[in-house]
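Thread: quick sanity check before group meeting

JM: Hey all, I'm pulling together slides for Thursday and realized we never actually wrote out the predicted structure for the chain we discussed last week. Dropping the sequence here so it's in one place. If anyone has concerns about the input, flag it before I start.
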Amino acid sequence: MSMSRMSPGQQQQSATLVDLLDRVLDKGLVVAGDVSVSLANVELLTIRIRLLVCSIDKAEQIGLNWWRNDPTLGGKRQTDGVGAGDVARLEARIAQLERQLKTRGG
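JM (edit): ok, ran it. Output follows.
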């Protein structure tokens, strides 16, 4: 539904939802809770829920950036202190040595 067809009340509600989402992403939202299943005073199952909803910028501000170095998520690989230029240079050197081995070996 386009904004021009909405009644003023619907437009205000949409703006409120946008404002709410903006505030949640800007400030962050933490949801924490525990669920326990017990039978005859014997705890059978405990589920601890910790959920953080925020923008990527806010997550990085508070020190959460695990996705940056996770190769399964397309992040950069860990180089253990070696610079990216060093890694590229070493990879090129390895490729050169492999080519030399192929030409000498047959």
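AS: nice. Strands lie at 29-39, 42-53. The first strand starts at residue 29 and ends at 39.
JM: adding both to the slides.
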